[in-house]
Amino acid sequence: MLPVLIRIGNFQLYSYGVMLFISFVLGIMIVERRAQRFGVEPKKITDLALWVLLAVVLGSRLFYVAFHWDEFRNDLVGIIRFWGNPPGLSGLMFYGGFLGAFIAGLVFVGLNRLPLLKMLDAVAPALVLGEGFTRIGCFLNGCCFGKPTACPLGMVFPAGSAAGAQFPNQTIHPTQLYSSLAGFVLFGVALLLERRKLKPGVLFGIILLLYSLFRFGIDFVRYYEDAANFWGNQAVALGLSLLGLGLIVVLSRRR
């Protein structure tokens, strides 16, 4: 693992932060290029990205606080004190960031009267590509790890990582790499699917359905400190998969 890429005096450049930055920049570049096909100004995408960035941070933090309320019951100031550790080690939850970005995107699109369904199709590949890079950051950071396993894909994490501290000298599922691979594969799937003449919004629905089903499955081998987090994530995954399926069915029937 390599949680810190560069260390100069008190300055530390965290691998998770670098991967998150790469995901964000690539996402903006991809969506800007794709959005031009639909007549959307590139500046609108930059403005949307700022909205989404803020919503991701707020949403992922609020989800974490909701699922770990006992940590903050007697320390309310701690709710906004989460940059002391590398992001992703603790204090943020993926689904909260996803839902925050989704809601912020809907509001922005509505206020600017942009074509909603076409915009969803434009961002779909960028979302899963970002997941691919971000989960590499999780792997280097040693967070978001799996349960002990005897399968050949299992790995032993260093004692200095969160995974190694929880399961010292034990082989566990590298669920971060599973998720990263899924993100890259779905990115390719999205590019292949859009060659077909799909109705607006259907591409987004397919990617949402496939990713949600993957998350539902991967959580069975991922480690959670308590059952509430596991079942909460499973409920969100099922809800999003149903939303994706609904979008596919309804939008495919449009004339």
Automatic annotation (TrEMBL):
Subcellular location: Cell membrane
Keywords: Cell membrane, Lipoprotein, Membrane, Transferase, Transmembrane, Transmembrane helix
Top-level enzyme category: transferase
Molecular function per GO: phosphatidylglycerol-prolipoprotein diacylglyceryl transferase activity
Binding-site residues, a 1,2-diacyl-sn-glycero-3-phospho-(1'-sn-glycerol): 135
Top-level taxon: Bacteria
GO biological process: lipoprotein biosynthetic process
Family (UniProt): Belongs to the Lgt family.
Purpose of the protein: Catalyzes the transfer of the diacylglyceryl group from phosphatidylglycerol to the sulfhydryl group of the N-terminal cysteine of a prolipoprotein, the first step in the formation of mature lipoproteins.
Protein name: Phosphatidylglycerol--prolipoprotein diacylglyceryl transferase
